[in-house]
Structures are given as C-alpha cells and as structure tokens.
Amino acid sequence: MPSKTIPCKITAKIIQEASDRAKTGLVSGDTVIYADSSTPGLQIRVQGKRAFWAVKYGDFTRTIGFVYAAKEPHRLLPSVTEARDLAAEAKKVLDDDPRKFDSFLSLFYNLPKDEKNGHRDPEEARRLARGLITTWTLRQCFEFMIEDRQRPGAEEPVKKGRSGSLQEWDLTLRRPAMQAVLDMPAAILTRGDFDDVRKEMLKIGIEPTNKAMSAVRTCLSYCLKWAPGKSGLDEKNQWWLLLARGGKSNTRDRSPTVDDIVRVLLLAEEYLEKPLPGRTDAKHGIGANVFAALWWLMLTAQRTYAALHLERVKLFPDTSPESPGPGWYLAVWPEDVMKAGKEHVIPIPPRVVKHMLPLIAAAKNSDSIWAFPSSEGNSEKDITVNESSVRLFMRRLAARDTLALDKKGNRKSGFVDFFEVFNIPWWTPHDIRNSIGKELDRAGIPGGSSVILAHKITLPKGSQPDRRRADWLEQFVEDITARAYHDPVRMQLKAKAMLVWTNKILDRYFELKGVNDEFIRERRNGLLATYVASDLHHLQDAIVYARSRYQDDLADARTAVEEDRSTLDEIRKEITSALRITDEMPSRLRIATATLEQSEIGLKALESDHAGSILQLAEQFRDDIGMRFDARAVDLKLEQIYRAAGRELLDENRFQPSRDVADYQNLRRQLVIGEISFEELKSEATRMYGFEHPKVATDQATLRQQLADEFGLDFRSDR
Asked: May I ask the CATH class of domain 3-96?
C-alpha cells in the first residue's frame, strides 16, 4: 500500500482516525491521504508516525501543520475549521509569491490566538507576509553554510575533529526554542527576536544556549561574507555579533575514578543482551558496535571524534626493532581528524590488543574501512559509530534521556539511574582525559598524558590486486613506524603511560567482575542448598499428605464429572420432551455443557499428570504449614546478595525451582512415581548440593561407652 487516498469530509472523527493511524505507525514508504471534500486541495497525510495537514495547489504541495507526531510537533493544528481557513490563505500566498510561504507560516504560528475561538488569524499572517522581503530565512542561511562548507574546494571547509561543528549546527536547527525565528527572513531579524529564544533555551542549560547563540553568529557572519545578496544581510548592521550568550558556564572539572569507569563498563556488558529497565522497545541496552567504541574510548582517552575515526589498516602490529615488545600494536590517526592538525600515533599494549580485537570483530558491518563502524552503515554509506553514541548510552544508563523523563523532568516509573544506584558522579567520555592525567601524575609520569592525548600515506583507491594491496600495507606500516619512532624517547613515554593507564582499567575490571560474579555465585549456591535441605525436612510429610489429598481430589473430580453429566442428561431429556421450547432452555443447555467440559478437563489433568498433581499438592502443604524458607525467602535473600555486590536483581535472575534446582525437582518426581526411595533421594541430594544429613541420635549404650573411653568414667560404679 504505497499510497491510499480516502475522499471524505474531514471531521473531528477523521482527525482522530488519522492520529490513531500515526500513533500505530505505517510501514516505511506507505502513505494514507484523507482528501477534504469541503476544501479542494486540503489533505491530512499519514506517513510513518506522523499525521499532518497539507495543501495541494497547482504544482505545489505544502505542509501547513501537524495533527500528530511521535515527537511533539511545533506546529500543532487540531481544528479542521482553522485548517480550512489557513489553507485558503495559503493558496493566496502561493498565487502572490511562493517565496513568502515559509515566512507566512512562521508569522501565522507566532500570532496570538483569539480569546473566543482559540484560533489564529491567517489573513493577518498573509497581510504581514506581503511586506516581507524575499531573501533567505535564518534556516536557509544555516542550510547554505552547512552545504557550502562541505563542498570540495570550499574556502572555509569544516575542520574535522573540531568539536563536531556540523552536529552542533544540525542540533541548533532542531532545537524547539529556535523554531520561532528559523523561518523568518534573516535580514529583518534583530537581537530582540532572540530574547524569548534565549529564555527557553536556558531551561535546558547555559552551555546549550551559548552554543546555539554562537551557531547563529557563525552562520550569519558566513552568509554576509559569501552570500550577502541572497541572505540580504548588511555589513553596516551586524547585530548578531552583539547577540548575548546564555551566561558563563561552570568550569567543568569532572574526573571519574577508575572504579567509576569500570562500573560503567560492567553495566554496559550486563546490558549487551537485554534492554535497560523500563525500556519497552525490546532493544538491547547497548549494541556491539557502541560497546566496542566505549571500551576503546576508556582505554585510549582520545577525543571521541578522532578515537572513532580510526581506519582498520591503521591499527596494526608494531614489529619494528624499537617496539616495546612482542604483541604491541600502533594506532595511527591522520592530521585531518586531530584537533591539533597533526598526525598522531600511540602504542597499544598487548593486553589491550587481546581485549579489543574480539570486540571489534563482534561489531556489525565488518566490511567497513573503519575499526569502529556504525551498525547502520553500508557499502554506499560507510560511517563510523556516531561520536555521541557512547555519551547517549551513558545518559540512558543514568535515565537522563527523554524516554526516561516525563514533561516535568521527573524520572518515570520503572527506569533506573544506575549512576545513582552505584553512587557514581555524572561524567562523560571527554572527562576521561582529566582522569588519565591525574592517574599518570600519581604514577610519577606527569608528561605521560600529554603525549597520549595530543606522520601520511593514502590507501590506493578502487579495486586493487591482493599483492599490490599487501605491498602498500607493508610500505605504509614501515613509513608510519619510522616516523613514529623518530623521537624514541617520546614513544617510550607513550608506551609507559599507556601501560600504566590500561593496566589500571583492566586490572580493576577483572577484579570487580570476578569478585562480584564469584560472590553472587557462591551465595546463590548456598541459598539453593538451603532451599533443598529445608524442602527435604518436610518432604516426606508433604508427600504423604499430597497422596492422600490427591486420592480425595481425584474422587471429588470423578464425582463432579458424573454429577455434571447427569445434570446435562436431565436438561437434554427435559428439552426433547417439552411441548414448547422456552428462551431459557438453550442457555441452561450451554451452561451445563460448559460445566461438564470444565469438570472433564480438571479430571483429565489429575489423571494424566499423577506426579505433577501430587507435587503441586505437596507445595500447598508447605504453604499451609508456614514453611519459612520457601521460594519467596530465597528471592528476599537474593535481593540482599545482589545489592551487596552492587547489582540489581533482575526478574530473570530471581529464583526459579524448575531452572535453579532442576535436578532436585526431577528427584522429587522420581520419588512420587516410585522409582527411588526417600533415603535414595536424600543421599543423591546431599551429593549434589553438599549439605549434611541431620545427625542420627546416638543410643544410650553407645553414648556411655564413648564417655567412658574419653573421660574414663565408670558408669557401673556410679549406678
């Protein structure tokens, strides 16, 4: 169903139907169009998880507002009356000057609503738009700058590795607070237009506000320089240079400890195969690609952009005579991804190599040129893991993302802030660079962090014979290695610093992982043995009770079947012999038939699973006598154990007898069906779970003899 058009008169019911379709979501590529019969050209279109108003007029098809969008739409238009009025004025604008359409819409949505009907006045918006100039809007200025600075031969190209400018500009365009000014002509904007923008942005934070205002200054200055005519900007009134910031950001000096870092790594590992608490999208907490990237960032402390823009061929074994030893690798970054604008090389210790290579191999898109490819990349679009992916995972781990918070910023029920649970101060990947400096200072290598944190050969393009590629790789490695070791003292310092830092991370990782796992495993096994021993203590009495109760239940079930069958037969006879069928007779017949079916099902269940029925009754006996160490008691103890280990007890780790003591459950079934005796069960359970039988009471004669032998007592004389 690529496209389906439904002619109709759009009403509130149709709007709700479109909204419901969007909430459910359409398959990618499908479109449902509700064409309004009252206003030619007015439509509601549903695509994906969006439902929006559109005007089809001549050669134009323009969106004029939203009915529903998965993310809160900025231009919500819930009234069909207002939509029809807006569509009528929109057609007039398209007749007059299509270039003013975006400005017309922007003006419309910024008009105050009428106090009586709650609608805006589209005629007023069109009147205001008439007087507007037709130069670029602020949004168009941004789009020009973003495109122009990425074209080949650009005078001012975007410098890679410089704070992610492209991402920051794109984020500015998506900020809800910016929408009020983005579609206004840049030439008529003033500093005052940004007062409300700044006020709304500050609700997010000072730093995002400062970045957004900086992006506006950069954009307009660029457009004044390279497109003054189309932007309409005048060098005599460069008001944007005086645009106020949001304020002074607090100096950031976050330095996560090694334990803080390792706990995040352990949590990431825990959620590689399952969703984080509260998430209903069934996605794993972290994907294999981002998990590998997380480890690489923690171990190398490189800037995120550069660290992830590592080509596979530029991570290779260091076989030079100057190498610190066997098993070492070199990681090489070209100058165009480094902030310092210089090629950067760091030695990678063997232990890190052994840890990282399997993680890199496990990531999806193994055909990529990148060591850390995006799982969404392909041969046509070969991209790295996004530089914000690791930070966004950490936000999900701290339940700081939009899915975890309600509109007031409070955490929703079911979501867990693991940073709070483990008492970890908030930090981001960039803060590792502070931590490594402090750790190396403590280790007596104050210059180590400088050489780690900061020479160009291009791989032949196109299809190349394996031999030629191998020759190139050999030359590449030799050239890089030679230039890396042109300053052997500096490389020795790098190797020493990398060893100190990575050993701290990996030592603590294996220590915490091993201690916690062993602690939980030992305590859990002890609880299982206690559960089995406690069950054994009452098992004989429970089985005796259950067998007796089973016979009674079986007799009751058979009696019930006979009585229900007799009742059904009587109703049948009554109906077949009646002169007149009354309204209630079919109902009585259906009820009696259903009752008999249920009785027969109950009887069949008892007869077909003799052992299971008895064991179920034995469990009831345990509950009736108030046995204290049951499955609920095990879970309570597990809660305490997991908390002591710094873990959360997830549902899948709760006590499940059929899984955790499956062998013992099988022994109980064998006992019930007579395959083994109770003594054999006790002996086998003791062997499996390692607990002792209760001591057998010693008879008086033996006890007297033991005391006589040990203490020399003469019981005959005492008597």
From this structure: alpha beta
